[in-house]
Amino acid sequence: MECKGLAERQAPFVKIDMTSKCIPLERLNREVNLINPFINRISDLYTLRGLETVSRPHRLNFSALIYITEGQGVHYVEHQQHRLRTGSMLILGKNQIHAFAKQRAVDGYVLSFDCSFLSSGNTDPYFDLLLTAMGHINCVHHVDDDIGLLFNAMVNEFASTSEFKDEIIRNLIRSIILKAVVPSYQQQLQSIQRIGHNDYYRLKKYIDEHFQQRPTAGEIALALGKSIKQLDKLAKDHACLSVKELVDERVLVEAKRLLAFSQYSISDVANRLGFNEATNMTKFFKRHTDVSPKDFRQLCKMGLHQK
């Protein structure tokens, strides 16, 4: 059963502002979505929103899975080009920047959702694992055929009137991630420890919401009701980084996004990221990348989609 196209019903997305200096932001329209996730066809997005809009790099304020059912093509996530074919799946996290190709050569499903929807409760034993895997894997180049069956089942469920609709869709999304994304993450990491609570998710969420203030490990520990030692162990177990390194990593990611995809000056970028002076950001950026912000921006302009 095919899902209805966006042209046949109101779009679930707020219109993207393409005129400001900042990176265009796409968000879910909660008033339209009776349930949190939303599924649609890639071809419908091209038809409804137009080539210029879908192919311009834009930020998501939600997560998404893009599953290719036919064709071969490319998709851009951050600064990387991913080559897609039938059976490929892209995993896009909240705040990531992506763009469809300027010429549509593939079709498939785009599933949009807020990660909080995936949780089955406070004692969910897999929620941290789901979130961590999605945070580290952007593309699985070929998934098993049963993933396609799960997407088809989800399309049917979106059209159902069952009182259990939300729970069925939640479990279908979790199944797709556990079957296709988590194994890729485990293979990449070689080993992973699972914990029975959502502490790592809370840590990552806090950093994601406050990184512009450059919080110290002590400030984060106080806010989360943990000791610095506990948080550092949590960060080491899940990301092999300290809490400070997690903060620096998030700041660096945002700096790259703003330099590559926005029209803000380097001084504006530094100010938005909590640096007192642009020179301090330059030192920070060069320490982590070996290039200056100015040179990085120029490299992106020369070959943004060639990596």
UniProtKB/TrEMBL annotation:
GO terms for molecular function: DNA-binding transcription factor activity; sequence-specific DNA binding. InterPro entries: AraC-bd, Homeodomain-like_sf, HTH-like, HTH_AraC, RmlC-like_jellyroll. Gene3D superfamilies: Homeodomain-like, Jelly Rolls. SMART domains: HTH_ARAC. Signal peptide: none annotated. Keywords: DNA-binding, Transcription, Transcription regulation. The keyword Nucleus does not apply. It comes from the Bacteria. The keyword Transcription applies. Residues 201-299 form the HTH araC/xylS-type domain. This is HTH araC/xylS-type domain-containing protein. It comes from Photobacterium gaetbulicola Gung47.
